[in-house]
Every structure is written in structure tokens, then in C-alpha cells.
Design goal:
This protein is α/β, with parallel strands linked by helices. The protein is 40% helix and 12% strand. The strands form 5 sheets. Strands 14-13-17-15-16 form a 5-stranded mixed sheet, sandwiched between helices. Helix 3 (63-74) packs antiparallel against helix 4, helix 10 runs parallel beside helix 14 and helix 22 runs antiparallel to helix 24 (566-575).
């Protein structure tokens, strides 16, 4: 059906000829209106947004960065400023709103709503902090600061901040308080200094004085061949340390064989509770990681590097800004070669495809596979994804040779691992040990059990790995060794529990985390985590119903979050039946060691939520 010019311009029968062509903008009574439907753009808010954005390019992929600018400047995101930002970026207001409300660190305030207090205290509620008294701490702070309309401070619970070695931890503004107490909080509030504390670290000049970036420059000059470096990584046995453990050298081949442009995306969203090994590296030797990153970028001839860092690490973000600027000034990289992207409080963005979505300025929703990100990744281009620790080892291997890993052997396993250790031990922290170490070795490296505590159970690799009993203290904590027991090494985040702790409560802590952090994209995970929490809050668990729920979640969830969330439930039922009201199995210990289980199926759920799960 065609429309002629006369159809558009001719008035309808009986209409005022003067209004011809006016459409919805006509004057007078009726359905005419002076503005389009929806929220109108406020001129003052638009001017404020433009001032904050300055000369930055108005690109859609920078949406989250721009939301941070507004949140940091004003303490919240008003409806007027969201509408203004949408207009400035030429995006639908709905798109800006859905992104802003997806991430926990953005406070969206609609018309008629009150802005949050100027100061936010976030109290970590991860397992290590809960063991250290985080609940009592939060209750004391809530009592002290009240909930009146004129309050200056609000107190929120928050997921793991990657400081489990100094639990309990909280964050006031962007300033972390380790081993927090109400008195320490009062001291920080009185100082009115809520900025991140940047620790002493090895800067560029000191790193180069010790031979830093020589390996990178040798590659760029042709003195070393990238194929030789790739063989060196394979000889060292380096596998991706984001969780999946895929051989790092092979990943380079997949991406390098693809058509340009190609990208390198670095996953610094170290959100698995109990994990802080990446922060440990970056707050001490950032250039060891940065050199490894640039070597990997050179290996695939990356057009650009996108470094995604979690917002819970403000000191690390500042270090990276300083040192990337130093690399640009030294001529080791060009301006714009490396872009740092700031997360906004979403655990799901630790999953590699969700991270890519976030870098593109979207909600962090995991993608379906295939295609894999090595084929269709960031901005639909082939993308190499590595995590921080992997790139740290790339530089060390290039500088020190493959023997630094291949010459270390324990319990039939080769290499070294950084274990993030917390809980009931004397010296929580990052401990570098042979990859075949058992939890007994890990506890010994951490100074043994804390006074008055007897070893009962442990989390071997973050909440996704579940909880294992002390009887499994001789299993190497490495790739492929824990799967027969319904677990996996994951991020090597070891949390040690004692006889004074409830394993049932620990599992509930883990599932509440998954309930909070589910992205909501798929029903099995979104609803499954919620239902699991309700069932686990009961004095006695309905184990048959929980197992049915676990099977559905493991089989039908899109990504590793929903697939691995059942692990804490199944392992507690298996190894600690007396805590959940289930009669103990006659041969539970023997079945656990053999990997058998007549009632609990482990297969699909024993998967890490990882940034390197490409194959």
C-alpha cells in the first residue's frame, strides 16, 4: 500500500484546513500535545551531564563509564540525569535505565524518591567476613547510624571485597577498613577522608631497572619469535587460572588465526568470594602483569586491550591509571592502546562473555555458545580473554624460563599455585605453593589452625566449589583432582572452617550470595537460587526436593553460576547429613574418596563460573 504526498498533506473530512500537516503537534483540544511521550530532557541536567563528559567521545560502549562519572559526582543517578545521558548518547531511555539498574554500585533515584545519604558504608558479608563477625558489626553500625530521613550515613551489606585476609572488612566511600570495628569506622568518618589508600608498589622505573619489559621489547624487535614464546608457555604447562584451566598457549593460536581486528580482554573482575590473589599481585608488582598483558596482545596482534577491573578495587584502579599513563609517556604503548574499564558491582561479569557485554556498555548477561569469544567476542570480533594471574605468569615464564613452573612437582602435579587462604587459620593471605598441595599443606603454610579451633571443613575454590570435609585432607588442590569429589579448584580460594562453625550456615551464606548475584537471564538460576535459599533456611532440609532443584539448575542454567550453585548444597548433604536433618550414609567417607554417590549426582554442576571456559 503506497502513501502519496496528498495523503499526508490533505486534511481529513471536516477538519480545520489550518491544522493540515500538524499531526500530533496541532493546537487546540483533543489528543494534541506539545512534547513527545515519555520523560522530557531537562536542560539543566543535560548541561551538567555534558560538563561531566567533557570532550570524551559519545560512544555507547562508554555508557557504564559515564554512569560512574555521574554517580561519583552526585552520589546517585537521578531520573533527570539518566534522561539527559540517554539524549546525549542518542540511546533510548529504557536502555540507559536497564543498564543503570543492573549494577549494584549505581543508585537510581526516580521522581519523588529521596536521594541516598552522602556516605555509604558497605559491610562485606562473604563467608570469611561472616566467620569474623560481620553480622554483628553491621548490626552495631545500623544501630549507631539509625535510619532517619536526615541521616548522613547508610549501612549496606555487600558481597566479597577481595580482602578476606583482613576480615571483617567494610568500605566507607572508596576507603576500605580492614579488621573493622565501630571505633575504626568512627575514626574514618571523623577524618572525612573517604578516598582509597594506595599501597606502596613497584613503579615503572624500578621494574625496568630489574630487566622489566626486556622480553616484550625482544618480541617487538624480532629478537624473539612469538611461536617460540608460545612453545615456552606450553612447556611450562601454564593453564588459564581464571577457573577452566585451558592451556594458555593454545588459546593464542585460536585467536591469532582469526581475521583482524582482534582484541585482548583482561578479566580483573575477581569476584569469587574468598579470592584476592589478583589484588595481591596488582598492589605489589603491577608491571609484571602489564608486561604479560602486552606480550599476549603482541602475540595475537591485538588492535586494542580492554582491561576490566572490579569497582571493589579502587586502589588497584588508581595504580593501573598511573602506570598505564607511565607506559604511554615512556613510549612503550601508544595512547589509547589500553583502555581500563571499571566494573560496577556485578559478580556475573566474572564470566567472560558477560564481561564482554559489560565492556560494550550493556548489562552483564552471559552469551550462549557457540560462537565462542575466540571467534565472535568483543564488538563481534575475535577476542582473547585472560585473567590477571595468568598474564602475571606469562611475564615470569618469558623472563625466567619454563622451568619456573615445570620443575616444581608435588603429589604428581606440576607447577605453582597462588592460594587465597582465609578463615580459621593463623596467617590468612596469598600463599604460593606447589600445585599439588593439599589443604593440609595450605593450612600449614598459613601458620596452622587458629588457637582454639579444630579443622572441620574447607571451601577449596570459592563458593562454586562447595564445601569438603576435613577427611578429604589429602586430595591435591589442582586442576582435575577435585572433580571426582563433586568439586573443582576454581579460583583456589580456600576458606577453612572449624568445629565451632556450622557447615549448614556456610552453605546458606554461599547460596544467598548466588541469589543476590544471579543476573536473572535464565529461570533455573534466577528462581532456583531463591527457592534453594528458602529451603535451606529451614531447620531440617528437604533433601529430595533440594536434589531435584539442584538437578534442574545444573542441567538448564545458561552459565556456570547456576550450574555450580548446587555444589554447596550437594556436598553438605553428602558429607554433613547430621547438620541438615538427614541420616548419615553408612559408607559416606569411602564413597566420597571413590567419587561414587548413590543418591547425589555431581556431573553437570561441578563446573566453575570462569572467564576462560572457551573449550
Amino acid at each position: 500500500m503506497s502513501t502519496t504526498e496528498s495523503d499526508v498533506t490533505s486534511p481529513r473530512p471536516g477538519a480545520d484546513p489550518a491544522s493540515a500537516g500538524a499531526g500530533v503537534w496541532k493546537s487546540g483540544r483533543g489528543k494534541g500535545r506539545k512534547t513527545p511521550k515519555g520523560r522530557q530532557v531537562d536542560d539543566v541536567a543535560l548541561a551538567e551531564v555534558r560538563a561531566l563528559l567533557g570532550e570524551r567521545p559519545r560512544r555507547k560502549d562508554l555508557l557504564i563509564e559515564f554512569l560512574h562519572l555521574i554517580q561519583d559526582a552526585r552520589g546517585h543517578l537521578s531520573a533527570a540525569h539518566l534522561a539527559a545521558l540517554a539524549a546525549e548518547l542518542r540511546l533510548a531511555q529504557t536502555e540507559v535505565y536497564e543498564v543503570a539498574t543492573f549494577y549494584a554500585h549505581f543508585d537510581v533515584v526516580l521522581e519523588g524518591e529521596s536521594a541516598p545519604p552522602p556516605i555509604t558504608i558497605r559491610v562485606c558479608d562473604s563467608l570469611a567476613c561472616e566467620l569474623a563477625g560481620a553480622r554483628a558489626l553491621q548490626a552495631a553500625l545500623e544501630t549507631r547510624h539509625g535510619d532517619g530521613p536526615e541521616r548522613r550515613v547508610r549501612v549496606l551489606r555487600a558481597p566479597c571485597m577481595g580482602r578476606c585476609d583482613t576480615a571483617p572488612v567494610l568500605e566507607i566511600g572508596h576507603r576500605h577498613v580492614d579488621r573493622a570495628t565501630p571505633a575504626k569506622v568512627d575514626e574514618v568518618l571523623a577524618s572525612d577522608d573517604l578516598h582509597a589508600r594506595v599501597p606502596d608498589y613497584q613503579a615503572l622505573d624500578a621494574y625496568r631497572a630489574g630487566g622489566g619489559y626486556a622480553a616484550l621489547l625482544a618480541l617487538r624487535s624480532g629478537e624473539r619469535d612469538i611461536d617460540e614464546v608460545q612453545r615456552t608457555l606450553l612447556d611450562a604447562g601454564l593453564r588459564g587460572l581464571g577457573g577452566a584451566g585451558f592451556p594458555s598457549g593454545k588459546k593464542w593460536s585460536f585467536v591469532r588465526a582469526a581475521e583482524a581486528p582482534r582484541y585482548l580482554a583482561v578479566n580483573g573482575d575477581e569476584g569469587e568470594p574468598g579470592t584476592f590473589k589478583d589484588r595481591f599481585v596488582l598492589e605489589r608488582e603491577p608491571h609484571l602483569f602489564l608486561e604479560g598483558m602486552l606480550i599476549a596482545a603482541h602475540a595475537i596482534d591485538a588492535a586494542r586491550v580492554y582491561l576490566y577491573m572490579r569497582d571493589e578495587y579502587p586502589a588497584v584502579l588508581e595504580i593501573l591509571r598511573r602506570e598505564i599513563s607511565a607506559l604511554e609517556e615512556a613510549g612503550l604503548i601508544d595512547v589509547g592502546d589500553v583502555e581500563v574499564r571499571r566494573g560496577a558491582g556485578a559478580y556475573i561479569c566474572g564470566e567472560e562473555s558477560a564481561m564482554l557485554e559489560s565492556i560494550e556498555g550493556k548489562r552483564g548477561l552471559p552469551r550462549h555458545r557457540p560462537p565462542y569469544v575466540a571467534q565472535v567476542g568483543l564488538f563481534e570480533r575475535p577476542t582473547l580473554v585472560h585473567n590477571v594471574e595468568t598474564l602475571h605468569w606469562v611475564a615470569r615464564i618469558c623472563r625466567e624460563g619454563p622451568e619456573i613452573l615445570s620443575s616444581v612437582e608435588r603429589n604428581g602435579r606440576t607447577g605453582l599455585r597462588s592460594y587465597s587462604v582465609s578463615g580459621r587459620v593463623v596467617e590468612p593471605g596469598v600463599h604460593l605453593l606447589p600445585a599439588g598441595s593439599t589443604v593440609t599443606d595450605v593450612i600449614a603454610a598459613a601458620g596452622g589452625m587458629a588457637d582454639g579451633h579444630v579443622f572441620k571443613a574447607y571451601q577449596p575454590g570459592g563458593p562454586s566449589s562447595g564445601i569438603l570435609p576435613a577427611s578429604l585432607d589429602d586430595v591435591p588442590l589442582d586442576f582435575d583432582t577435585l572433580q571426582p569429589h563433586g568439586s573443582f579448584i576454581g579460583s583456589a580460594a580456600v576458606v577453612v572452617l572449624s568445629e565451632s562453625d556450622s557447615v549448614k550456615d556456610a552453605a546458606l551464606n554461599m547460596l544467598r550470595f548466588f541469589e543476590d548475584e544471579s543476573c536473572g537471564q535464565c529461570t533455573p538460576c534466577r528462581v532456583g537460587c531463591e527457592k534453594a535459599v528458602k529451603l535451606m533456611e529451614k531447620d531440617s532440609w528437604d533433601t529430595a526436593l533440594l536434589e531435584e532443584l539442584c538437578t534442574t539448575m545444573g542441567d538448564a542454567s545458561i552459565c556456570g553460576l547456576g550450574q555450580a550453585a548446587p555444589n554447596p548444597i550437594r556436598l553438605v548433604i553428602r558429607h554433613f547429613p547430621e547438620e541438615v536433618g538427614r541420616p548419615p550414609a553408612a559408607s559416606a567417607s569411602d564413597a566420597a574418596r571413590s567419587g561414587g554417590d548413590a543418591e547425589i549426582g555431581y556431573g553437570a554442576s561441578a563446573r566453575p563460573m570462569t572467564d576462560e571456559n572457551e573449550r
